[in-house]
Design a protein that fits this description.
- By secondary structure, the chain is α+β, with helices and mostly antiparallel strands.
- It has three helices and two strands.
- Strands 1-2 form a two-stranded parallel ribbon.
- The protein is globular.
- The mean pLDDT is about 80.
Length: about 100
């Protein structure tokens, strides 16, 4: 029960400040729909946003990349390899942009 309460508090967290740098979102290309009557309006609005609402907390446009699978399966074989490659490319791009090259 404690783990569930902790998870719910993280889900409902809203940053108090706008992040000054670009946010990169690795988004699953399959959407799992969870029916929750209490948050249906918010869930609908977020699912229609390409950046899933992250632009509200970022000073720069969100860099969105799609990876195979859904929220769970993107972390498992065979999709996790694609996720790892995309993440590596995004990290390398960010390092080049900031001059922190590898």
């Amino acid at each position: 029960m404690v783990q569930l309460l902790k998870a719910n508090s993280v889900v409902n967290y809203m940053p108090q400040e706008v992040y000054p740098s670009q946010i990169t979102l690795l988004r699953a290309n399959e959407i799992v729909v969870i029916v929750d009557e209490s948050n249906s309006e918010v869930t609908s609005e977020i699912s229609q946003n390409l950046d899933w609402g992250w632009s509200q907390v970022s000073a720069k446009p969100v860099d969105v990349h799609f990876v195979p699978g859904n929220h769970v399966t993107m972390m498992n074989q065979p999709h996790v390899q694609d996720l790892a490659e995309k993440l590596k490319a995004c990290i390398e791009q960010a390092q080049k942009a900031t001059g922190d090259g590898v």
